[in-house]
Amino acid sequence: MGGLLSWIVFLPCIGGLALLFVGDGDEAGRRRVRLLALAVSLATFALSLALYSGFQGGTARMQFAEAASWMPQLGIAYKVGVDGLSLPLVLLTTFLTPIAILFSWEDVGRRVRLYHVALLFLETGMIGVFVALDFFLFYVFWEAMLIPMYLIIGVWGGPRRIYAAVKFFLYTMAGSVLMLVAILWLYFVQGGQTFDILAHLDRPPDPAVQGWLFAAFALSFAIKVPMFPFHTWLPDAHVEAPTAGSVILAGVLLKMGTYGFMRLAMPLFPSAARDFAPLILALAVIGIIYGALMAMVQDDVKKLVAYSSVSHLGFVMLGLFSFNLLGVSGGVLQMVNHGVSTGALFLIVGMLYSRRHTRLIADYGGIARVAPALSAFFVLTTLSSIGLPGLNGFVGEFTILAGAFQRNPAFAAAGAAGVVLSAIYMLWMLQRVLFGSRLAPANENLPDLSAREWAVMIPMAFLMFWIGLYPKPLLEKIEPSAQAWLAQVGRRVLRVEAPVLGPPGGLPLGRGPAPRGVAAAWMERLRGEGRP
Amino acid sequence: MIRYAWLIPLFPLAGVLINGLLGSRVRDKAGHVASLMAGLSLLVVLGIAREMILGPGGSHVVPVWTWITAGSLSVSVSFLVDPLSTIMLLVVAGVGFVIHVYSIGYMHGDPGYPRFFTYLNLFMLSMLLLVMADNYLLMFVGWEGVGLCSYLLIGFWYEKQSASDAGKKAFIVNRIGDAGFLLGLFLIWTLTGSLSYAEVFKAAPQLAAPAATAIGLLLFIGAMGKSAQIPLYVWLPDAMEGPTPVSALIHAATMVTAGVYMVARTSPVYVQGPGALEVIALVGALTAIFSASIGLVQNDIKRVMAYSTVSQLGFMFMAMGVGAFASGIFHLMTHAFFKGLLFLGAGSVIHALHHAPAAQQQDMRYMGGLRSKMPVTYWCLVAAALALAGVPPFAGFWSKDEILAGAFFSGHYVVWGLGTAAALMTAFYVFRMIFMTFHGEMRVDHHAREHIRESPAVMTVPLVILAVLSVVGGVLPGFPPDAGWIHKFLAPSLAKAPGHAALDEGVRVVKAAAQAGAQGGGHGTAGIALIVLAIAVALGGIALAWRMYLRDTAAPARLERRFPGLYRLLLNKYYVDEIYQACIVEPIYRLMRALFDFDQKVVDGAVNGSSFLTVWFSRISGIFDLRTVDGAVNGTAGVIGFFSQLFKFIQSGMVQNYLFVMLLGVFLMVSAYLFR
Lengths: 532, 676
Prior knowledge:
The complex is a heterodimer.
Chain A: H1 4-19, H2 27-54, E1 63-71, E2 76-82, H3 87-107, H4 112-131, H5 135-156, H6 161-188, H7 197-201, H8 207-224, H9 233-240, H10 243-268, H11 270-296, H12 301-320, H13 325-356, H14 367-370, H15 372-385, H16 392-407, H17 409-434, H18 451-469, H19 472-489, H20 518-530
Antiparallel strand pairs in A: 1-2
Chain B: H1 7-21, H2 23-26, H3 30-54, E1 60-70, E2 73-81, H4 83-106, H5 113-132, H6 136-154, H7 161-192, H8 197-203, H9 209-226, H10 235-238, H11 244-253, H12 258-265, H13 267-270, H14 274-295, H15 301-321, H16 325-352, H17 375-389, H18 395-409, H19 413-438, H20 446-449, H21 457-472, H22 475-478, H23 485-490, H24 505-517, H25 524-551, H26 555-562, H27 564-571, H28 576-627, H29 629-647, H30 655-674
Antiparallel strand pairs in B: 1-2
């Protein structure tokens, strides 16, 4: 089935272009726009299911790979492919887009056509980033994705939308400029005059310069994740974005950062990644705890969920930089899990908002009595988010923490503290929104879920249970690629004693082995004495 | 039959689905559906138990499906049927079924009736998973699942602020314990390479003492949360906000004993690291006496029971700590009978008083003289109280005596002393409860008096069943002490405790002599002396309660006046909640507030500040540019040179390049138009 992947990438874009020819002047036209957009995104999802079923487990190579000449004189080619690391994220994207469109049905009434065009273009951009195997192509998708998201926040957002949209755009842009410089360095200096990612993966640069290149990539991705202390654009963007924008932003866009680390920054510059690991692990752990503490003091539900994302993405980074199979498999799974759980949380917050036009926790209370079905989904989603066994979040968290424990028990302990904190802020929020005797008069006639909202929530709930109870098919597809990835980032590159290129000595970080922590020393003692 | 073990959790799951999804249709039938499912589960359990007890026993694994595989970590959903899980299954399914039936009567007419039974069946499912798991991760699933149900059921009447507070508190305190438990699992997995019991226990003998101790302590942190031990016990008394059947099932008979079961299950690891066992013994003993002393002065009938539960769990951990694993499980079982009964009895009383003002329904100062009105409840509760106090031949006597003897003969004299003192308090507070509730003059609100009557059969029959078990449930499996049937049955599942390091030579001699003197069990003369002492302690506590609350009823007030400080300290539960609030909760909250300020002002301030600076910088450089035109021209020439190098690629003559640039232009124009 040649070209399947390209169809998945470009079908939404084609659909978006087609939408431009549908008038949205009257209600019937808007309905046509919505139906067409939904049909396109569902067709894309169906194609990605075909991708999933055609994907062969047990191999790490790129599948459904396509290559075409694009700008040969520049070494730029159109190259795409999926492996176990990107497949789950492609599926997540194609799954969340129809949900977002369906949710926006009544949520967005202004400039309906442009909104759906932006959403579909955004989908193309996102999938493109996950499947691109050429730096140039990757960068084009990476930047192309920014524009529709910028529009979604800036046009359909809340009162401070312009500030949030500009902040989002500039912050991300500032990061990606550095990445561009690093890409150009790879292109011109590293040699080959090619943008082929796979080719570069086979030729890691000299360790002396890896530090700088890694730092350039890492900064760009760290802003996107976002890692502490680059996270402040996120709460603003989430609060101002329309619900569907938040779902996509949290569900997919944040994974661009973690995916970038996984696909590019770490395997391209393995020795630098290892040198930087203590710093990044520390930031990840700070993010887990800090994000949770921040979430706890928010009065705004959406801000609370936004800060919880900082915490959850910290887990993913913790997994990736554990440099072991459990950590990276769990990391990939957790990217999907976070997309599902946090996406669902934003959907529910959006449902509350569309009923009451407030996001302040204090305006709610006692909702469980008037809207039992909405409350049930809220509780379920919360439980999935805080990692209750049997639901999706647990599998990811557990494997990540197990991986982190192998690397250094202290990190796992800090992560476990994050698990405790997540229960506190989430349950406290639930209590204040759903339970209690006080029911504000404005909430007395709050309607329960509509048929459309049921249709949005049921697939989400299904995924939570499915991944929670039977993650094996997914993990089996991830594992071979994760293993190959590990081999890649575990490569030892011969250190050149006298650096010949670039700044002398690379960055001052990570000379020699990292200092052993107390916990690591303890583990060695326990292990050492364990052998008879 | 054993290979159908997967049916046991399947029935409650079906109940959850039926009641949960069709709640509005089944309505009043929800209780029957849930009880039927619990009953079917119990039937399967009985069938398996029959095979296990009459047959050769052994250990059977029933695989269901592979759950998680990632690298070397492979975890399956499979069930273990062995003597230990058989006993636990009997307790959970048996007491669970009885309480389901009772709830049909107790919860009758509640608007959340189907929801209640959905949660109750979900609890059964989780608890059964917990005890049937053949690996630690699946146990953890059940472990968290029962925690969830506990959260949902404590906060069942969620309109009540105190109830939803209590539910949240329970979940969070449990989560703190679970974090430790989780780290324990990682350590097990790192050191032994597996999480399945069979493989972990196979590797256990190779574990060094520090490693086993570390595992043991981490797991015990989880047990402290789930089984309400110092310092994580604070959630259990508050959990009494839940409906009374919930208190009986979850917060007395089954869930809170999960920690004890976990330690017993992990005994092969624990015996490798005696340090952890010493800690457990001490924490158990301290908890036992600490909460028993609080129970002495509480006036809320359910709170007395709650502190009693905490205290009795302390006894079970004492047993674990001194290596008397079988005795601890034995006490777990008898405790499930009599404490479940005490709660159900209390529930029956509360049910009878439901016309009294809300604040008085559970307050024993507004009860009294109920004996004649509620004879069945009364006699059942007396049986339970005798069992709890440890009067032979009631159930609690046999198991509690074994624990104290175990502590004594392993050289844990401090533990034994604390336990004996706690036993004295236990006998006192439980009979204080009986006397205040059922004897003396009636102090019930006049309006409510005429409504007091014995509960319906659907509630009293469960009481009677549990009362019978409270009478015979100890002597049948537990006689003769330390050599009864239950010890022989459980032996294959439990590790043998080694001679403890603390056990000095003198005790060894005494013990050897004692064992030589006893034919077929017991500890000879020393053992008999201990038994006599235990009986004296129990009767002494009862006599004291009788004297203070029936004969000389002014005595409590006198004592209160003489020791006001001590009284207030006990009444206010040693101010532990207040201390936690002031020392942990408040500082963390203040820290969070400060951090949020930091986030807004410093972290975000840096972002906004840098954009502000950029704008200023570009203004200044704009002026600079105007004034030093020469330099600018030269610079421009250079820039142009650079860009023309770059842009010559644009003139490639390839259509897709033009298309790309065009698209970019369209986007820019659209956004310019939109943000004009």
